[in-house]
Predict the structure of Alpha-galactosidase.
Amino acid sequence: MISLVVLAAVARLVGTAAATQSDPLPLPPMGFNNWARFMTNINESIFVDAAEAMSKNGLLAAGYNRINLDDAWSTKERAANGEMVWDPVKFPNGLPWLTAHLKSKGFIPGIYTDAGNVSCGGYPGALHHEEIDHETFTSWSFEYLKIDGCNMPDHSEATYHEVYGRWHEILSGADHPMILSDSAPAYFSGEIAGTNNMTDWYTVMGWASAYGQLARHSADILVYPDGIYGGGSSWVSMLYNYGQEVRLARYQRPGYFNDPDFLNVDHPSYTLDEGKSHFALWCSFSAPLIISANIPALSQEEIDYLTNKDLLAVNQDRLVQQATLVSSGQTWDVLTKSLENGDRLLTILNKGSSTGDLTVSWESIGLSSKALRRANYVSAKNLWTGEQVKVSVKDGGITAKAIPSHGTAVFRIAKSISPVTPTGIIFNTNTTNCLTDNKSGHVTFAQCDGSDAQTWRVRPHGNINSLLRPDECIVDAQGAILSRHSGCRTDAWTYELSGNLINNNSKLCLTEGANGAATATSCGYELNEQVVGLPVGVTVVGITV
Ligand SMILES: *[C@@H]1O[C@H](CO)[C@@H](O)[C@H](O)[C@H]1NC(C)=O
Ligand SMILES: *[C@@H]1O[C@H](CO)[C@@H](O)[C@H](O)[C@H]1NC(C)=O
Ligand SMILES: *[C@@H]1O[C@H](CO)[C@@H](O)[C@H](O)[C@H]1NC(C)=O
Ligand SMILES: *[C@@H]1O[C@H](CO)[C@@H](O)[C@H](O)[C@H]1NC(C)=O
Ligand SMILES: *[C@@H]1O[C@H](CO)[C@@H](O)[C@H](O)[C@H]1NC(C)=O
Ligand SMILES: *[C@@H]1O[C@H](CO)[C@@H](O)[C@H](O)[C@H]1NC(C)=O
């Protein structure tokens, strides 16, 4: 839960190295949390009933094995000895009973606190009580801790870093460290912080991704429309969080997952196709799959898509790549990533208002038509229908037919004889403008339109070419970015965790200048105009904490 406050950007803390902790969570967590469905109206029955329903309806068997409490489980005051106290009315049997009960049913229990002095919902926060609260949560047998970021002493990046750093030390020093879900980055995302300056957001993402196993990076997904919270479109809310997630792909790695928030699948404003797209996108991202819904009341259709084995295998794939955009236009978004066995994922989202078909070329998928010529066909599985297809190489790519408005097509393309090249848009993660090639060789930043002029291949030696001009590569020509044949021999580029794309020769950073100019200028610290998103699979160099 996040309060919409205007955060003042102050100094950042420089140069503290993060201890690399052993990864207790190699794969994205799956389970249940009360927040988006019940907010603060919680009690023991919600969690007991959710667990029972999940055991019966196949969710537990499908891998949803976490039951996480969110805000409002405690009394409004600590005990005289300083400890947190569970609300005895909401939890008549107590939290140790609840965790034992959940564990006996095969679930792993998680709990919530707030890094500030008061939680978002007005309950005691953990500030200056970190040690005692950690001991309490451990003694109650919780194994997962979400730490929200309301009501901190101030809104500076340095303060958040210091307080979350304290938690990191405590948790990583424990015998069996709890999973840490930290919400700090959300408080620095543009809309919530009320700023156009994204530098602090990127900085917080850097340390949050080293401190926790997952981090909430932006707004809460729309909560259930009860009397207090009103209505709204969950599709719009979901697409907003999706749009934030795609800016941050470079941070995800085994053991750390960007968290675009809950699967609020039973929000009544979703159509079935929209709910399925929400799920398919979160699976494509290898994002946490934490359902926040009234589980006992889920429909069979909802259970069916939430337990789709092929999509869950994509989510839980051991490479845990976050799919990135191949292209993005008015109607279509196309995403890809690689899977551990060498398969490619292709996810196509129809943002438009009518049903449509789309063909995605082999090159866009990251394959080579030339290499594929030695084969007759490419095998693919449609993950929504389960249909296996053999697509003739001569067809030029994969065609998805009749994708409904707000629906998604997902294909798992079997490993082929073609090598895989990271391919997709290169975009400024502040303006979301796409690096755009031009037949003249002139390169600019322009609104993303889904064209081949905006789909780039990042080759093994760091040369980068667009699909529009496959024989040319971008170069830093005295500060101006051009696309030229000579660049493929001489100009390598390096992508850093800071989001900078740096020319190996000039050491200058790709920069979006005024009016969409694409230039190479001296690298600053995570500047709006120099932080870009690249296709997943490109090596990301450096850890900045
Ligand atoms: C953006 O924020 C960073 C970190 O707080 C600061 O150093 C920088 O000067 C800001 N940039 C602008 C253009 O205000
Ligand atoms: C528990 O909370 C749910 C949702 O707020 C409510 O419907 C139910 O009546 C409550 N049960 C008890 C025993 O208080
Ligand atoms: C929390 O901190 C704020 C200022 O940092 C203070 O005004 C407030 O009284 C504190 N609240 C509690 C419950 O400690
Ligand atoms: C970041 O992008 C927003 C939206 O396009 C724009 O208003 C703002 O000026 C940009 N900030 C910088 C420093 O480029
Ligand atoms: C391509 O560049 C030429 C000249 O540099 C310019 O006139 C034209 O508008 C550009 N086209 C696009 C699609 O940007
Ligand atoms: C480019 O620079 C990076 C980082 O310094 C280095 O790892 C890489 O090998 C260089 N690539 C080439 C082709 O020189």
